[in-house]
């Protein structure tokens, strides 16, 4: 079983309404590729690009939620919506699980009802920011670097109440520590190690150890610029990040968060979904079978609220 903590298929289908999820070659994650690999559960993020006018952002988020239901779930009986650990464990052998997530709180503005609406639609993991600032917090790309606002603290309390994962990927450094103080279910859905690759989106050793102390989840992502400071990246770079997190004591938190269809960059050896199984074989050649099970699915399952 493989669980992937992040992809941007909904965004791609939203911006390309004539595309089909079935076998669109431009999609790194599509139905045909999914049915032919061992990914059991894929998290599908709602990501509204920041250039969308503020008064249209929530509507755009609703459009992507509708795409999730109408173009991912409805046409394919073998894809089941999952919102809990039990849902995942009860999937039949030929079934796949789709989990709805949110990347950035900018679509909700400062309206808690909009957030609750998305949670009622099934969002089970919510990132507080993209790279820019919003009413909740600054993102990692905001020079000011502010942490959670009072509204942001209210948002995290709502996520706690609804037992939804609070995602720190893209969040400012100060915001990260505010989440550690307030969130009951913190994760980093798609982030790598800063000590391996010094990109602002990656987490430093102190942050990773904080996630470890909370028994959280950290999905290593396949974005080339987050993997290595080079023009050519490969699956070996992904393994290097996994190994670094492990050496920090993160054997029980590290997992996978590909960010397929959210970036143009290509990692040699795992260019799209069709290469996932061979990548897992590479993991099995480097790490113990017990650790590979943790990486591929057990650590994600453990992080889900009971």
Helix and strand succession?
A: EHHEHEHEHEHEHEHEHHEHH
Radius of gyration: 18 Å
Secondary-structure class: alpha/beta
Please name the CATH architecture.
Alpha-Beta Barrel
Largest beta sheet, briefly?
9 strands, parallel
CATH level-4 homologous superfamily: Metal-dependent hydrolases
- CATH topology: the name is TIM Barrel
Work out the count of structural domains: 1
Number of strands: 9
Mean of residue pLDDT?
98
Give the amount of beta strand, in percent: 5-15%
| Termini gap | 20 Å
Main CATH class:
Alpha Beta
Helix content: 25-40%
How does this model look, in words?
With 306 residues, this protein is of the alpha/beta class. The chain has a single domain (2-303), classed as TIM Barrel (Alpha-Beta Barrel). Helices cover 39% and strands 13% of the residues. The chain contains twelve helices and nine strands. It has helices at residues 9-15, 31-35, 54-73, 85-89, 112-120, 150-161, 173-182, 205-213, 224-227, 235-247, 276-286, 289-303; strands at residues 2-4, 39-46, 79-81, 96-103, 123-127, 165-167, 186-188, 217-220, 254-256. Strands 1, 2, 3, 4, 5, 6, 7, 8 and 9 form a nine-stranded parallel beta sheet that branches. β3 (79-81), α4 (85-89) and β4 form a beta-alpha-beta unit. α1 (9-15) crosses α3 (54-73). Pfam families: Peptidase_M19. It comes from Salinibacillus aidingensis. InterPro entries: Metal_Hydrolase, Pept_M19.
């Amino acid at each position: 079983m493989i669980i992937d903590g992040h992809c941007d298929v909904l965004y791609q289908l939203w911006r390309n309404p004539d595309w089909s999820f079935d076998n669109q070659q431009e999609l790194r994650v599509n139905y045909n590729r999914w049915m032919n690999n061992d990914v059991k559960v894929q998290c599908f993020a709602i990501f509204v690009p920041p250039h969308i006018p503020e008064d249209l952002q929530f509507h755009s988020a609703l459009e992507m939620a509708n795409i999730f239901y109408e173009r991912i779930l409805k046409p394919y009986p073998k894809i089941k919506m999952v919102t809990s650990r039990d849902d995942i464990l009860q999937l039949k052998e030929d079934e796949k699980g789709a989990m709805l997530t949110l990347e950035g709180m900018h679509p909700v503005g400062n309206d808690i009802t909009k957030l609750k609406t998305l949670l009622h639609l099934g969002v089970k993991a919510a990132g507080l920011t993209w790279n820019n600032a919003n009413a909740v917090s600054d993102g990692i790309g905001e020079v000011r670097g502010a942490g959670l606002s009072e509204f942001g603290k209210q948002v995290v309390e709502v996520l706690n109440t609804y037992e939804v994962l609070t995602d720190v990927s893209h969040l400012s450094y100060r915001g990260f520590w505010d989440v550690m103080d307030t969130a009951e279910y913190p994760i980093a859905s798609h982030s790598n190690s800063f000590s391996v690759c010094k990109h602002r989106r990656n987490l430093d050793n102190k942050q990773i150890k904080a996630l470890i102390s909370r028994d959280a989840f950290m999905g290593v992502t396949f974005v080339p610029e987050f993997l290595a400071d080079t023009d050519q990246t490969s699956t070996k770079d992904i393994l290097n990040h996994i190994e670094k997190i492990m050496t920090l004591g993160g054997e029980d938190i590290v997992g996978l968060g590909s960010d397929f269809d959210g970036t143009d960059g290509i990692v040699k050896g795992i260019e799209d979904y069709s290469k996932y199984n061979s990548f897992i074989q590479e993991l099995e050649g480097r790490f113990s079978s017990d650790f590979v099970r943790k990486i591929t699915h057990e650590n994600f399952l453990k992080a889900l609220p009971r």
